Amino acid sequence: MWNSCRALAFRTPKTSLSSGTRISSGVLKQPLIRLFAAGGGGRVSSAVQDADLLSKTTEKGTTQQTKLDTNPPKGTRDFYPEDMRLRTWLFDHWRSVAKTYGFVEYDAPVLENESLYTRKAGEEVTQQLYNFVDKGDRNVALRPEMTPSLARMVMAKKGGLSLPLKWYSIPQCWRYERMTRGRRREHFQWNMDIWGVDGQQAEAELIAAMVTFFKNVGLTSDDVGIKVNSRLVIGEVLTELGIPEEKFAATCVLVDKLEKVPIDAIQGDLEELGLDRSVVEKLLDVLTTKSIESLKETLGADSEAVKQLSGFMDLCEAYEIQDWILFDASVVRGLAYYTGIVFEAFDRKGELRAIAGGGRYDKLLETFGGEPTPAAGFGFGDAVVVELLKERNVLPSFDSSGVDTVVFALSPEQYSAAIKVASTLRACGQSVDVILENKKPKWVFKHADRIGARFCAVIGADELEKGEVAIKNLDAGEQTSIKLDSLETWAEENQ
Ligand code: HAM
Q1: What residues line ligand 1, using a CB cutoff of 6 Å?
Q2: Which residues pair with 227 in a beta bridge?
Q3: pLDDT one-digit tens code per residue, 82-140
Q4: Do strands 356-360 and 375-381 pair parallel, antiparallel, or not at all (unpaired)?
Q5: Are strands 405-409 and 455-459 parallel, antiparallel or unpaired?
Q6: Where do the H-state alpha helices sit in 112-200?
Q7: What is the rounded CA–CA span in Å between residue 241 and residue 252?
Q8: Closest protein CA for atom 15 of ligand 1
Q9: N or C: which end of the chain has fewer CB within 10 A?
Q10: Which pTM was predicted?
Q11: Which residue puts its alpha carbon closest to atom 10 of ligand 1?
């Protein structure tokens, strides 16, 4: 649906113009937004309403008032201050864990060249692109994930980066998803990646960092588990069945789809790939293996997959995170570029979609024409984990605005003095909200209470005459008078 809309949307205006005609953004925009609205199948976007609003300009040049749709585009979110406090809290936890594990932060543009995502393995993520042609006729896309941008950045340095590198980022990612609980059209995704390490030490370090985050926010191994498998398992079965290596990535993507749909639904994909149904059935059989021990029986003691997984499990014991980890041969992950260990954090009650996912992707740089460089990492979305934290009741309260002191002048004559008090407290590091208008004390105290301030500093004529300020401790309900020249000491004592 999305692709066909896109093709129509971009071709119609172009073909209707003679060659060499410059296409104005208006020409492009009008049919585009209408088709998007129709293709989305949902409510009409505010952009369409804006276009309608323009068309309703009356003869006299005045516009008729059409009420603005105040919803953000479908699948996206507004962050009001209390939502923002929760988001900042989450990002702070992510950043703090990344720092504890020696990762450094990077970023890339949210808009990338579409070619960065044109992989031909039939992945969902490439079918869900928010892509368009920009005014310079370039095919661009909002990033659906960060890994290709990271690969591009590493490649751009042409070996100038000293490996191994441990980088993290918290990008907003865009996917034209079918919306379900915890799946949106934009999400923030904590990415942690290690480049230049080809052993499972990298995966173990990454998963240990993830576990540290879970522990730090109050979740336990009873709440969350991390399923681990290796794509080498599929690779070895395919080799045994004589299937050429170039079919590996697309087969993994197909097998991942079988988690969601019955095998009959992918018959067409199987034929396109030239795979016998029996091959997939054999794979599915191996993927029901319950332990590394029985995997050993199926694949043999020399199996690289078995060695890799056993080595990884030993490292998890060294990190003392084994309670969080379980081998699950059915975990394949839906991205084509994974080559080795893959993992997925999930809620043990089984009610939510995957909390986080990742794995090893040693060949991604090669697919871009770069040098083979081992890499592993994970992406951890903001949506599902917040659902889980709410459900487990472990989120702190975000009611308080973080303001320490509300400062107000009883009348306009004391306003300059109030500013001086506020400036002194701010210089001491306090968060201070000065009441900018002439308000009644009752209003001010109610306001201070609503925003969760700790103190209220009142400057009236009597106080000023004595060179003082009256400060009420809003938690204790006590009021004291503080000399203006002792304000700094008071602020230090009440950090
Ligand atoms: P992914 O499995 O596509 O991997 O996404 C990783 C995580 O991002 C998911 O487990 C989920 O938490 C979150 N996520 C994905 N799509 C959505 C959505 N529509 N709404 C809300 N949350 C979502 C990747 O993206 C890889 N690039 C991760 C990676 C980094 N692999 C190696 N390094």
Answers
A1: 125, 145-147, 175, 177, 182-184, 187, 189, 191, 193, 335, 354-358, 361, 377-381, 383-384
A2: 326, 344
A3: 999 999 999 999 999 999 999 999 999 999 999 999 877 778 888 899 999 999 999 99
A4: antiparallel
A5: parallel
A6: 124-127, 147-156
A7: 15
A8: 381
A9: C
A10: 0.86
A11: 356
